[in-house]
Structure formats: structure tokens, C-alpha cells
Design a protein that fits this description.
Elements (H helix, E strand, L loop, with lengths): L4 E6 L2 E6 L2 E3 L18 E3 L46 E9 L18 H15 L3 H7 L5 E8 L5 H9 L10 E3 L2 E7 L2
Antiparallel strand pairs: 1-2, 3-4, 5-6, 5-8, 7-8
Length: about 190
């Protein structure tokens, strides 16, 4: 992984954050902005960013080692997921609306999911899906914590296979046709890029 990119795991959603800073040169006071010659900005990106002294070690999962949960690697009809088509992107930018239910897994660092039935979570997801098709941000407001209109970029091999297949086969700007059941609840996903 390039030193300027780090994975951030939060609320069960993977986002990518660029590290580093840029310094834009100042224009001389005697030169008007239109007359100033363009200069290249220098970007100072350390080869390795040291962790704070009190930081806990973190295991990073390689995409091939991400565990799958039985049953979440299939299409809704029960058939196995096909391979991603040739030309599918290596990463996508997406938004997600989450609906947890009692008995679903909690995301790392989160408390146990709320006490609603799986059936009620599915109903809420279907209601939000109808909204998401015309106004995804409004659907995000209806979702549980962790829902976001822009979760950032995620590479292949990080999400559950059913979510990955849905996202990586969606056209840009579209919402998946149905809620996707995951170990943490129902997801409504929209591919941004």
C-alpha cells in the first residue's frame, strides 16, 4: 500500500484517507495574481508515519483473508455469486444506508445493535430504498448510525461478497435495486464513482 494512503475502519464501513500536507507557495506582493508565474507546490509525505507511543498495534487484513459469513456470499436466490465482470473497477466510491436488527453483529467499536426485529429492519430498508432512488441523502437520514451519503473509496476484497458484487457491478450514480442483507443488518448502497 502506498505510504500516502491508510485504511480507516469505522462503524463497519471502510473509508480511505489521504495523509500528508501540501504547501502552496505565496505570490510576491509586487506581482499581480494574473501576472504571477505558476509554481509547483511541494507535497511533504513521509515514507512512514510513526504511530503515537501509546498506540495499540492493529492487524491489517489482506483482501484474501477477510472472513465471510455463511450465507452472505450468495445472491438472494441462493445461487453463488458470479465472478466480477472483466473491466469492473478495482475500487469504488459509495454511500450506504444501514438498518440493524436484534441479533445482528455490531460493528467494531460499536454497542450491540438496536432492539428491532429483522422483519422491521427489512421494512425500514425497503421504505428508505424508495426514497434513496430519488434522494439518497434523505434516505441516509432515515438510517442507523454509520449511514453516510459518501463512505469514500473501498477496494475489492474488503466488503462481504454480496455487497462487493452489488457495488462493483452498479453503474455510477445508481442505487442497488434491493436492500442487501449482511451480518450487521440491511444495507442500501449507491455507487458514486
Amino acid at each position: 500500500m502506498p505510504p500516502a494512503i491508510a485504511l480507516s475502519f469505522g462503524a463497519g464501513i471502510v473509508g480511505l484517507a489521504l495523509l500528508g500536507k501540501s504547501a502552496a507557495p505565496e505570490s510576491p506582493a509586487s506581482v499581480a495574481p494574473a501576472e504571477a508565474e505558476p509554481q509547483e507546490a511541494e507535497i511533504d509525505v513521509p515514507e512512514e508515519t510513526p504511530a503515537p507511543p501509546d498506540a495499540e498495534p492493529v492487524d491489517v487484513l489482506e483482501p484474501s483473508s477477510v472472513p465471510t459469513v455463511e450465507g452472505y456470499d450468495r445472491l438472494p436466490d441462493g445461487s453463488p455469486l458470479p465472478e466480477l465482470p472483466k473491466g469492473a473497477p478495482s475500487r469504488v466510491k459509495f454511500g450506504v444506508v444501514l438498518f440493524e436488527y436484534e441479533g445482528a453483529q455490531a460493528a467494531p467499536g460499536q454497542k450491540a445493535p438496536r432492539s428491532r426485529t429483522k422483519e422491521r429492519a427489512r421494512e425500514l430498508a425497503l421504505e428508505a430504498l424508495a426514497i434513496a432512488k430519488s434522494d439518497f441523502s434523505k434516505a441516509v437520514e432515515k438510517g442507523d448510525p454509520g449511514s453516510t451519503a459518501n463512505a469514500g473509496f473501498v477496494p475489492r476484497g474488503v466488503l462481504e461478497p454480496s455487497v462487493e458484487y452489488a457495488l462493483f457491478t452498479l453503474e455510477k450514480g445508481t442505487v442497488h435495486a434491493e436492500p442487501i442483507e449482511t451480518p450487521r443488518g440491511f444495507w442500501i448502497v449507491r455507487r458514486i464513482q
